[in-house]
Amino acid sequence: MLPGSASLLPHPVSLEEMVDTLALQKLAWTYCHAVDRRDYRLLRSLYHDDAIDDHGEMFCGTSDEYVAWIRSMLAQWQATSHTISNTLFLIDGDHAEGELVTAAYHRSADGTREMIAHGRYLDRYERRQSIWKFQRRSLVLDWIEERTTTTAIETVGANLGVALGQASSDDPCLQRLPMFGACGSLA
Which architecture characterizes domain 15-183 according to CATH? Predict the structure, then answer.
């Protein structure tokens, strides 16, 4: 597409637009991985130095402040699972915007409560030195589910002989997939 002509209307999609769209999707998916594995160095690398993250009244600030905040916020959760489903991107040269539908599962530290936040990330991105990163990330909540749980994941996993996910460098992804393990910093 020509600069300034970003549109949600059907249009011929160029190879450049497809490549940029995939790069933006990978950025969003990597964000989910970094948060759920508590890889704060990787998470910080996804934002430009002058970026802002806006999670409403819970938090709004710089990318460095966001990483410090999310580290303390995630300490109250035993496990999280952030997913991205529908993604829409508008790309105009080195600038882009995205609306990404998300569901963020949270299990309390004591394993007795679950909270699932359903919403959308409203993102602005910039490509600098050929790399797309977040310039401004905003969270919009559409609804929240809360429930108690009586099933201990440790019991289920042990009974089925299935490895349990970990919000740490002990996660099977980082242990069983050498390339992922080599990328994990968990700093």
Answer: Roll (3.10)
Is residue 140 helix, strand or coil? strand
- How does pLDDT run across 39-89, given as a tens digit for each residue? 999 999 999 999 999 999 999 999 999 999 999 999 999 999 999 999 999
Tokens matching residue 37: 């594995």
Residue 91, CB-side half-sphere exposure with 13 Å CA sphere:
23
Residue 4, both tokens: 């300034």
Which SS3 state, helix, strand or coil, does residue 26 take? helix
Instruction: Judge contact between 121 and 87, C-beta under 8 A.
Output: no
By C-alpha distance, which of 7, 42, 24 is closest to 137? Answer: 24
The amino acid at 141: L
Sequence spans of domains, the chain = 15-183
What pTM was estimated for this model as a whole?
0.90
Integer CA distances (angstroms), 187 to 44, 89, 122, in order: 10, 31, 27
